[in-house]
Design brief:
By secondary structure, this protein is of the alpha/beta class. The protein is built from eleven helices and 13 strands. The longest helix is centred in the middle third of the chain and has 15 residues.
Length: about 290
């Protein structure tokens, strides 16, 4: 059986990080920059520390992708003990991690086989794909089959967010300065979705209550949900999250819901106090879930 190793980047969010570590998933860190200070995501800075710094008014953070050299070192090291490497990364429209991974893989052509996949998503969406790939490796599937599996799942992953601090959207180029200032003055909260791998504004709401209603409206479009995760910037459920959970329990009495704290890379895009939802629509991909 071919030895296949899985690589991803630190924007990933696993259901169980310890499980991924036990199975040898290699996570290459983004660098989180606050002014002239830099931290490796997941190594030097946790989500709690990230949002603590944001709350204290540190300079607005920026997420810098792993470099080509970072990926080259990882791939070269793994090539000594594996036959193939599958590298699955944050959407290329949200991070240059995919582009840098592809450059490193192309440079190693002929020495080791590295397949690089653009997940077209981030955070828990990326985690679902990496977990499915690891399950497929455990089942002894071939590399090409695993790549097809992962790419086939991408269209079943949906993510939406209600953003509280518009300055983060302005900084990432997804909102103009005038729009951000006016939106803040009017108390507008953009409702965004990940579409074709990018954060796209859909609508606007004026209150947290309406934001929760909009998220619920989005969720109830799905009849067959394999996973529903609420993403927030706190470790324990916030008031908005509890409100959404109450409504969801009424709509889906037999469904399990997960609440997770989103990480620094996603936080650099949507800022603190945002509320997001991931829906993974159930389809038979043969993942064993």
């Amino acid at each position: 059986m071919a030895r296949i190793r899985i690589v991803t980047d630190s924007a990933v969010q696993f259901a169980d990080p310890a499980w991924a570590e036990r199975l040898g998933v290699v996570v290459v860190p983004h660098t989180i920059q606050f002014g002239n200070q830099t931290f490796r995501e997941g190594m030097d800075i946790t989500p709690e520390e990230f949002f603590r710094r944001v709350a204290l008014g540190d300079p607005k953070p920026v997420a810098l992708p792993p470099t080509v050299e970072d990926f080259t070192r990882v791939y070269t090291g793994l090539a000594r003990t594996s036959d193939y490497i599958l590298s699955i990364h944050t959407s290329g429209k949200l991070s240059r991690a995919y582009r840098h991974a592809k450059t490193a893989a192309d440079a190693l052509l002929g020495r080791t086989q590295v397949r690089v996949v653009d997940s077209m998503t981030i955070s828990r969406g990326l985690g679902i794909l990496v977990e499915a790939a690891m399950h497929a490796v455990e089942e002894g599937r071939a590399l090409d089959e695993i790549v097809r599996l992962v790419r086939g799942m991408i269209s079943s992953i949906y993510m939406v967010f209600v953003v509280e601090d518009l300055a983060y959207l302005e900084r990432s180029g997804r909102m103009g300065p005038a729009q951000a200032i006016l939106g803040t003055m009017l108390g507008i909260k953009p409702f965004l979705t990940i579409e074709e791998g990018d954060l796209i504004p859909m609508e606007k709401v004026r209150s947290r209550d309406k934001a929760v209603e909009k998220l619920l409206e989005f969720i109830t479009e799905f009849a067959n949900i394999a996973e529903l995760t609420i993403l927030q910037s706190a470790r324990h459920p916030t008031e908005d999250t509890r409100m959404l959970l109450d409504r969801l329990t009424e709509e889906y009495p037999d469904q399990e819901f997960f609440v997770r704290m989103y990480g620094p890379t996603l936080g650099c895009f949507i800022g603190p106090n945002s509320l997001g939802v991931l829906v993974y629509e159930a389809e038979d991909h043969g993942t064993g879930f």
